[in-house]
Amino acid sequence: MENYWDARRGDCQFSTSDIGWIVGHSFTVWGPPLNNVASVVFDGKPHYPNAGIVWELCKKFNVTSIFSSPTAMRLLKKEDFDGQWLQKWGPSTIVKGISFAGERMDPDTIKWVRKVLPYTAVNDTWWQTEIGYPIGGDLLNQAYRGPIYPTLPGSVCKPGVGMDIKIFKDDNTECEPNELGKVVVKLPMPPQFMKSIWRRDETFVEKYLTETPGYYTSGDAGKIDEYGYLSIMTRVDDVINMAAHRISTGRLEEVLMDNRKVSETAIVAFYDDLKGECPLAFVILQNNEKKTPQELADIKKELNNDIRREVGAFASLIGVIICDKLPKTRSSKILRATMKNIAANQEYKMPATIEDPSSLDHIEEKLAEWKKE
Questions:
Q1: Which range has highest mean pLDDT (117-121, 141-145, 255-259, 347-351)?
Q2: What is the dihedral of CA 139, 143, 146, 151, to 10 degrees?
Q3: What is the DSSP string of 300-348?
Q4: Shared domain check, 107 and 50
Q5: pLDDT band at 282 (very low <50, low <70, confident <90, very high)
Q6: Are residues 28 and 61 in the same domain?
Q7: Which DSSP state fits 170?
Q8: Total domain count for the chain?
Q9: β-pairing verdict for 140-141 and 146-147
Q10: Residue 91 has what pLDDT?
Q11: How far is it, in rounded angstroms, from Cα 91 to Cα 120?
Q12: Are 260 and 225 found together in one domain?
């Protein structure tokens, strides 16, 4: 609580996660009280009834630290890019630290948080339900309540305490610095690690310990740079093999999010008979602005040019689909695997954790329109 979330005795923490999820019950229900920290419990959305509700609660209850998700911040950025609601309630003078987890935090949103909360320490962390503790993140200096290491947007900083992290190729040899590969953690794991899967010991071993002997297989893809900074780019299943290149969908999404017109995006692999696997982008525009057909065509061309310039011509998007919403879990994770199945006309099960089932119908409709173009 102290070293990652900057929450100490006498402080007040606000975790925006659903209580039913690991973040919710760990860092809303019992984590804060065990550390003599007050905890704010809120039943609602971070942007409803307006984009200032989070900041209003921070002001009302003197919140000193926030634990939230990248999706929640992207929602607030979309609804209040200039930070007018935030200025109204003035939590920048109260909130000392804000931490993130749940999915990759794109650099553009990190920069936005820094702009609207200039005096707040920002800590982007990476962890999993299976581990129950940060696998990567910055530690906070207790003397001046700031990060120990300089923040590198797009990176979750250094491996967490007790985590010996490696990046492996498919043959389980170690990757070079900045080379994309599967993220593994050397055994033994710290004591907060899961002991098994309930009544499925064999599945536990097969899923997490067999593929990379001596290591925990995280299922995520990432890289470590020459300075030891860890970046989690996407799930291993979401890496696209295209034109002899392994492309991270997280890197492509990062490029699109740098465009001021884009509020949110998800990229999935789409199989083309001629080109093989190609990236297909689903994009929500800022404020869901309505555009003419020509304006939409110009935006799609602009986004593809962004990808070609920043990543390379080999990574060209096979399509850009403008959407009103994306399917997500109640913990704000985008259901990319389900979207990929829909795009490939494959059967899929309605995820039990989905927040808005109608979002899948919306994706199907948009895909059908795109395929007719």
A1: 255-259
A2: -50
A3: HHHHHHHHHHHT-GGG--SEEEE-S---BBTT--B-HHHHHHHHTT---
A4: yes
A5: very high
A6: yes
A7: T
A8: 3
A9: antiparallel
A10: 66
A11: 10
A12: no
Question: Is residue 186 within 8 Å of 166, Cβ to Cβ?
Answer: yes
Name beta bridge partners: 322: 283
Count the neighbouring beta carbons within 10 Å of the beta carbon of residue 59: 17
Q: What is the CATH number of the domain that holds 298?
A: 3.30.300.30
Chain segment 63-109, per-residue pLDDT in tens: 999 998 888 888 888 888 888 888 888 766 688 888 888 888 888 88
Nearest to 139, CA basis, from 107, 120, 119, 161: 161
pTM for the complete prediction?
0.81
C-alpha 212/C-alpha 184 separation (Å) is 8
Would you say 180 and 214 are in contact if contact means Cβ atoms under 8 Å apart? no
Cα 53 from Cα 44, distance rounded (Å)? 9
DSSP state of 351: -
Count Cβ atoms below 10 Å from residue 47 Cβ, excluding itself: 17
The tokens of 86 are what? 């935030």
* H or E, element range at 370: helix 358-372
Is residue 108 one of the residues assigned to a domain? yes
- Residue 95 belongs to what domain range? 12-124
Question: How far is residue 14's CA from residue 155's CA, in Å, rounded to a whole number?
Answer: 23
Same domain (yes/no): 202, 273: no
Place of tokens 């395929």: 371
